[in-house]
Structure formats: C-alpha cells, structure tokens
Design goal:
Low-confidence stretches: 1-18, 160-171, 268-279
Structural class: alpha+beta
Number of strands: 9
Mean pLDDT: 82
Shape: globular
Oligomer: single chain
Order of helices and strands: EHHEEEEHHHEHEEHEH
Radius of gyration: 19 Å
Number of helices: 8
Distance between the termini: 53 Å
Strand content: 15-25%
Strand order of the largest sheet: 1-4-5-3-2
Largest sheet: 5 strands, mixed
Helix content: 25-40%
C-alpha cells in the first residue's frame, strides 16, 4: 500500500544534490527498541558501506551525550562530533526505519533514524535538505504507513506527483522587535547549537521567527527545532530574527546574547562577530 505523502514543495532548496539516496540506503529494523542499540545498528550499516571506520560510533555516542539528536515528528539524526570526522571515509547517509519506535530518551520515540557521516561541514547541507522535507505536516503519518524502502525514499525525496501545491504565505515584516546576528560557530548551526537556540527562544512568550539572509530561506518558527535546523546556516551567515509579543524586546536581547556566546560552543569560534539590532 502506498503511503499518503503530505503536500510540500516539489523541490528541495538548492537543486545541486549533496547526496543521492537510494533504496539500498534504507532498511527496516523491527526489533531494536533502545537508542544505543539503534546507534550500533546504523553505525554497522555505515561501516559495511565503507562510509566510516568503526570508531565513528564513539563520536555518535559522544554527540548524544552532549545533546539529543532527536528532531521531533518521530525523527532522529544521529551523527558524530566534529572530533570524530577523521573516522569518516566518505560522505553518506543510512536510514533505519523502526515502526515499533525506539526510545530516544526523555519520552521521545524515534521511528525514522537518519544516520549521517560527513566530512567537513557537508552535514549542514544534508540536514537542510532532509529537514526541509521532514518538517512538513503529515510526514510522520506517511512514514508509519510506508511498506518498504521505496515508500520511504519517496517521502524523503518529497515526491508528490498528484498533490496540488500549497499556497506560500508571505511573511509579515511588521514586528515588535528584531535583530540580525552573524553566526560565529565554526561548524555552523548543526543540531547542538540549534537545540540551544530553540531552548533560548522557548523561554519567551512572543512569536519568534528566523530567516537565513544568506540563503533566502524565508521565515521559520524559532520554537521548532526541525525548522531551525532546516535553515542550514554556516559560519558567517546572517540570521534575521523577528519577535511579536509583550516580551519581544527582552527576547531579542537574550537571543543576541546567545549568538554572542556561540550558542553554547564558546565565542572564540573564529573571527565572525555578531551584528545585532532590536527595534
């Protein structure tokens, strides 16, 4: 039975493909139920495909110890730390589908586990492409009804041959406060700093949205981790943040401080200083 794939844009931004997924990169595992076992299984699959050396698994475990790679919607994106990149032989992705659900900690259940091996900062492009598709409403339901690797591949590629295109909302530029901040993190806005940014934003009642001025991403919800990761921000990119609400000014100030300190990764991440302003 073919899954019902949610409506989404026909093309993932930036048509030049960083990776090309095939059905051979996708496999089902209906037995694994805990995170460490899942990490071992996907690491074994990547090692067998000569994407990584065996010690990359240690980097994946270290990343989870720092901050969970669970994104929401039943999706986790385990990957190694920057220090483990020398264990990456070539860039690639392995996707493990677990309909029974894997306990990813803190009550989070992952059913789609996208393991990433990337050299340099290629993982940012991979994350941006995947999260652009996976953040759409209805993806989790579509994945739950996927019967085989081809169904899953169709979802990951965002193929919607018979679906009408949803109208794109024009972002409102009116706001109570705003700021533009230059990302100083040497490894970009990967999962860890994204999570810390979202945590900072969630402390405020205001509606807060973010856009990447350097990629023309459009505004996304600042309290949605998958949407923030989908910005694909790299070091030096300018992120424009707008806030609407009673505490908008305080929120922008706090977000600015978070950027200045490197979103939990220190403020010595190279030479790009943040540029900010609130109105």
């Amino acid at each position: 039975m073919n899954p019902v794939i949610p409506e989404q844009d026909h093309a993932i931004p930036d048509e030049k493909q960083a990776i090309a997924l095939t059905t051979g990169d996708i496999f089902f595992n209906r037995d694994v139920r805990v995170k460490d076992d899942a990490l071992t299984q996907v690491a074994n699959a990547m090692e067998k495909a000569t994407l990584i050396r065996a010690d990359y698994l240690t980097g994946m475990r270290d990343r989870e110890a720092q901050i969970s790679t669970y994104l929401g919607n039943g999706i986790a994106i385990p990957h190694g730390t920057p220090q483990s990149r020398d264990a990456v032989l070539r860039t690639g992705v392995k996707v493990m589908v677990c309909p029974q659900g894997v306990d990813w900690g803190e009550g989070q259940i992952a059913r789609l586990i996208v393991a990433i091996a990337a050299q340099d900062n290629e993982h940012l492009d991979i994350l941006r492409r995947l999260t652009h598709v996976l953040s759409h409403d209805g993806v989790q339901q579509a994945l739950e009804s996927a019967a085989d690797a081809q169904d899953v591949l169709s979802i990951l590629e965002g193929r919607t041959p018979d679906s009408p295109q949803p109208a794109k909302a024009q972002p409102a530029r009116q706001c109570d406060a705003e700021g533009t901040f230059t990302l100083i993190n040497a490894h970009g806005l990967h999962a860890r700093p994204s999570a810390l940014l979202v945590k900072t934003i969630k402390q405020w009642q205001s509606d807060i949205r973010i856009e990447n001025l350097d990629t023309g991403s459009g505004l996304v919800e600042g309290k949605n981790l998958m949407k923030v990761v989908s910005l694909g921000a790299k070091q030096g990119h300018r992120l424009h943040v707008i806030a609407n609400g009673a505490d908008a000014q305080q929120a922008i100030a706090a977000i600015g401080r978070a950027f200045e300190t490197g979103l939990g990764e220190g403020n010595g991440s190279e030479q790009h200083a943040p540029e900010a302003g609130a109105h």
